[in-house]
Amino acid sequence: xVCYQNYFYLPSYNSSIFHTCSFILNSKAINMSFARYKKxxxxxxxxxxxxxxxxxxxVTMKRGQxxxxxxxxxxxxxxxxxDYGSKVQCPKGxxxxxxxxxxxxxxxxxxxxxxxxxxxxxxxxxxxxxxxxSVVVESGTGSGSLSHSIIRTIAPTGHLHTFEFHQQRAxxxxxxxxxxxxKEYVTVAHRDVCQDGFDLENIADAVFLDLPRPxxxxxxxxxxxxxxGGRLCSFSPCIExxxxxxxxxxxxxxxxxxxxxxxxxxxxxRTVNLPIVDMGPTGxxxxxxxxxxxxxxxxxxxxTTSQVKKLKSGNRDxxxxxxxxxxxxxxxxxxxxxSESFFFKTGITPTNMPGHTGFLTFATLYPS
Length: 368
Fold this sequence. Notes:
This protein has helices at 76-79, 102-108, 118-127, 145-154, 167-179, 193-196, 215-224, 239-251, 287-312, 318-325, and strands spanning 2-4, 7-11, 18-22, 46-52, 55-60, 66-69, 72-75, 87-90, 93-98, 135-139, 159-164, 186-190, 206-209, 230-236, 255-260, 268-274, 331-332, 335-336, 342-348, 359-365. The chain is of the alpha+beta class and 368 residues long. Among the domains are: 40-100, Vcp-like ATPase, Chain A, domain 2 (Roll), CATH 3.10.330; 105-264 and 357-365, 3-Layer(aba) Sandwich (Rossmann fold).
């Protein structure tokens, strides 16, 4: 374990990848930063209001303002001075105030462009071999989703050079980095790298390209990489872009050119009931058995008919829906529930899979 400027670095099982976490070793007040943690919420801090896994909001604290939630109004003045992670009581419920991290910011940032999410970001961070001290060149900046994660990985001794061809987006990204306490780790430039190049030479350990024509910037990207070599990644939504990029990478002398597509599949946890297996009659059925089977079939028919009538009645209120789910109580979708039935938890894949996001093409430049 190595300590440097309030940071602890713990090497993972792969010596080339480091997991970084930061702790404040003293109680003095510091400015909010995505690169390190602090205890108290202060005016001007960007915080994450957590109402649920799919219900979060990024809010900048300003005295005199109020934020409306489904649980009622939350006054900023009531939150300023609290510890991060505190539970805040609202008129109709409660929420939590969280320290912002790149992962939470990705889920709550204002979208100026399409962004990369945690699934692709994790692959990019690993495949580019990023670690504290790495120098990274990125184009384009977009909404800054990937940029925040890169900065967290390479801090405190690394640096990110990010380029955006759209002036307003570049200025907004620069403003956000400043507000988030990251200005010492990033340089934002307004530049069309496809036409003008990066204007950098022998400084980058890794290059990331998210461009409509990435091959036009690859020659300049190679010039920006260190003489000791490095890794390059290109994100493209279309396979035709990937094919042309791979050709250019090989012509420029890059090796180990590979393309990946990372898809996220969620599993729903369900309870499954397996009824007793009916092996059929072991002998000639008696009159009593026949009578019981007839009564059981009639009961099933009556309950099924009753349930269908309720579904067709058009009664859609929540109370009726809960009642329908529990009718009939002695039957499941796959058979009758008995005391000897076997119940277990299992994962079921969704019927529809999420759509395609993009292809990640990686390549290695060896020392010249």
